[in-house]
Amino acid sequence: MTEKLTQRRRQNDNKHPSNLNNDQINEKVVAVTKKRKPTRNNASPKESFLLKIKSPIRLSIFLIMSIVVLFYLCKILIGFVSTEHTNVPINLPKLVNINEATPDRFWGTYRSNLYFGLKHQSSKSLSVGFMWFDYGTLQRSNDRFLRHGCDQNDQLKYGWTYHDGERFGIEDIKDNNLDLNIQWIKQLSGQHGGDWTTRINVTPKSVGSTIPISLFFYFHHEHPWIKEVKSISKQSPDTVTIRGQTNELDKFSIKIHLNTLSQQPVVRTLTDVFRLDTIHRDILTKLTSNPPKQPFFILADQTLKDSEPNTFFIQITLRQPVADEAFSFDIIYQSESSDREREQDLTGLYFNDELVRLQKQFDQRFETIFQLKTKQNMDETKINFARSTLSNLIGGISYFTGQSLVAKPGQKTPDQYFTTSLYTAVPSRSFFPRGFLWDEGFHNLLIARWNQNITIDILKHWFDMLNDNGWIPREIILGDEARARVPSEFVIQHTNNANPPTFFLTIDYLLKTNQANHLFTLPFIQRLEKWYQWYNRTQVGPTPFTFRWRGRNASSIYELNPKTLTSGLDDYPRASHPTDSERHLDLRCWMTLASSIIGKLYSILNNEKTNQYLAYAQLLSNNDLLDQLHWSDEYEMYADYGLHTDYVQLERVPIPKKSPSQQYQQTHIIRQVTKDSDVNFKYVKHFGYVSLFPLMTRVLNPHSNKLDKILNDLKNSTLLWTPYGLRSLARSSSLYGMRNTEHDPPYWRGAIWINMNYMVLSALQHYAKISGPYSDKAQDIYKQLRTNLLKNMLRVYEKTGHVWEQYDDKTGNGKGSHPFTGWSSLIVLIMSELESSAKKFFNQDVPLKRFTK
């Protein structure tokens, strides 16, 4: 399947608004709401109304709601509506000073789209990369033999076994005919990010005949930087030295030292002018061979050109590698500003000792934080799996610089977003090596446990992406190298499209731990508030206290159920006929969380806005109001509401001929409604992840009988329960496992997703810990679900060597992109059970200790 068809976050414009009269829609919404008001003691509707009037509690709720609708929604929270600009940054103080990059995180493995690559945090970085190929793979494939960028089609097992995000990392790569072990260590010193060393260890596998291996390492900069190259010589038989200078790094040297000479490697160097985004293709044009004397491909050895090259390559070829005998070489980068502080080169035994020290330090810190050795049934295999999963999330953190392409609805030619830089984790190095808005909030639930300073740096970079309307793009595609990995039709970001505001989950964790006091300043809170106001202004629903994801295509004829990509749940079933009068349950729950967090943040500053936001959060979390808008008595579930029917199917039909002379009858597959009379406004009967959001965000009162109903439904195998985790859509749903178009297989229609399972587990812990009639039931379900997830993910990891994007609900096997150590890495928090100390989000006042001014 091509990348174009499997890209999971596609851009769609809602170009064709519904032709229904909005007044008619609102009348039906009001009628349904009125019809659903409960009675008690079998009273008539009139008697029930009198009971409500006599109740001071209900009267006060009614008055509060009225006041909030008129005042808070309109004035405080929605804010003023200004002329929309796509590419004007918000007029607030920047959170990141690009001229003061943190030394600990200046250099890093920030080209995570490569099997191994380095760069530093600046707009014009010196970029470092590693390539290789063996001649056995070359003979089988003329176009896929050179390994460079992470690619699922290479079918390699690879990943970090250690990575602390700042000082060191160890990566293992298993190819067809060789194993690679890559070790990287950084030392802080001087004024320009310090020194670092990369050690490449290659071990040929035992094969019937000797297969030559070629290894490449390169340095690239946008501008000329090379001052001197000293190649292998009699005076220096094992070392190549390069001296260079850039504006960001000043003067530096690079030594490439061969640690193993017994295999008599052939060493070639090249200086030339390359583009970074095409370097993989262009280097192949520089290789030559001379069979039979020289059957392998090598670079034509060149001295430093006068044409001001911007790239240095070294190729090391093992002509007759010995099976199971390791060959290694070191790449030693040294900043001239560190010369006075450096006692010895970071190589040899000194490198070995440092690596052992850092590994030991990592292991101690890992156990202190996650305490896996104290958990039941937690052996060394499981702990290694958790350590590697965390390391792969951390090792996937990248740094991008450039301009996104953005457009308003209906805008044909996109604008260039303002130039910006982004420090962020990525969902998948092989398939999604760029920043995704709603993924990143989940990523940092784990990253913040490991190193809160990394999370704070990430948050600052993301919120510096705000434009003057308070919008942040859903996907951040910065620079030619990042854009080269994305099909062109998916590059443009549309300014009406949202994504779940999961950063509020991260910020809530930081608040609960009373950390990040240097983050929660007024400029940061103001940026967060502008982002919140953008949601509350652009994603509001048809009636007060309702919300609606934008971006659904009401005129689509090819989709079984028009996708809601902006919700993050893509093809999860919503109302079959998109209208402006839809009510989306999950977005309402996200806004409940967001309102609470904004209020808590302002309380830190003793700001007058505190009570306004907290009061609004209390109203959104009011269970009576939630039930009126989203509980279906008929289906006994929380649900979306909209113009809907289940009587839809995909059918192949003839395409009208363009002319009578056309010989061949063409056909296409489109959606057909098989029962028009069933299309009306109703609750959407598709039980799944969306139905669980009042549970996942802990809005439900612990004494609510609806909580009991949801808990019972969780264990129902005809709905979501499987031996491997909770599936995304009930087996009883009419769209379970159904393709959405002729070319789109099911995505959120049954598969098991770890981020949603994590949110359910976290909520079950919450309801198990607080007083209520269903705490024991929540605890039992929590234990069983956690066991199922751990057992299956470890089984698949041992079988495939990967953590996966999703898991099949019938077999438990991995599906989708891999390795996917984005939000699937939340399995580490599930293993550690760190959420057991979580506090209640809503329905009670949580006093906050003031820890900053």
UniProtKB/TrEMBL annotation:
<feature type="compositionally biased region" description="Basic and acidic residues">
    <location>
        <begin position="1"/>
        <end position="16"/>
    </location>
</feature>
<keyword id="KW-0472">Membrane</keyword>
<keyword id="KW-0256">Endoplasmic reticulum</keyword>
<dbReference type="GO" id="GO:0009311">
    <property type="term" value="P:oligosaccharide metabolic process"/>
</dbReference>
<feature type="transmembrane region" description="Helical">
    <location>
        <begin position="59"/>
        <end position="81"/>
    </location>
</feature>
<comment type="similarity">
    <text>Belongs to the glycosyl hydrolase 63 family.</text>
</comment>
<dbReference type="InterPro" id="IPR004888">
    <property type="entry name" value="Glycoside_hydrolase_63"/>
</dbReference>
<keyword id="KW-0326">Glycosidase</keyword>
<dbReference type="InterPro" id="IPR031631">
    <property type="entry name" value="Glyco_hydro_63N"/>
</dbReference>
<dbReference type="InterPro" id="IPR038518">
    <property type="entry name" value="Glyco_hydro_63N_sf"/>
</dbReference>
<keyword id="KW-0735">Signal-anchor</keyword>
<protein>
    <recommendedName>
        <fullName>Mannosyl-oligosaccharide glucosidase</fullName>
        <ecNumber>3.2.1.106</ecNumber>
    </recommendedName>
</protein>
<dbReference type="GO" id="GO:0004573">
    <property type="term" value="F:Glc3Man9GlcNAc2 oligosaccharide glucosidase activity"/>
</dbReference>
<dbReference type="InterPro" id="IPR031335">
    <property type="entry name" value="Glyco_hydro_63_C"/>
</dbReference>
<feature type="region of interest" description="Disordered">
    <location>
        <begin position="1"/>
        <end position="27"/>
    </location>
</feature>
<keyword id="KW-1133">Transmembrane helix</keyword>
<dbReference type="GO" id="GO:0005789">
    <property type="term" value="C:endoplasmic reticulum membrane"/>
</dbReference>
<dbReference type="InterPro" id="IPR012341">
    <property type="entry name" value="6hp_glycosidase-like_sf"/>
</dbReference>
<keyword id="KW-0378">Hydrolase</keyword>
<feature type="domain" description="Glycosyl hydrolase family 63 C-terminal">
    <location>
        <begin position="347"/>
        <end position="833"/>
    </location>
</feature>
<comment type="function">
    <text>Cleaves the distal alpha 1,2-linked glucose residue from the Glc(3)Man(9)GlcNAc(2) oligosaccharide precursor.</text>
</comment>
<keyword id="KW-0812">Transmembrane</keyword>
<feature type="domain" description="Glycosyl hydrolase family 63 N-terminal">
    <location>
        <begin position="106"/>
        <end position="259"/>
    </location>
</feature>
<dbReference type="InterPro" id="IPR008928">
    <property type="entry name" value="6-hairpin_glycosidase_sf"/>
</dbReference>
<dbReference type="Pfam" id="PF03200">
    <property type="entry name" value="Glyco_hydro_63"/>
</dbReference>
<dbReference type="GO" id="GO:0006487">
    <property type="term" value="P:protein N-linked glycosylation"/>
</dbReference>
<keyword id="KW-0325">Glycoprotein</keyword>
<dbReference type="Pfam" id="PF16923">
    <property type="entry name" value="Glyco_hydro_63N"/>
</dbReference>
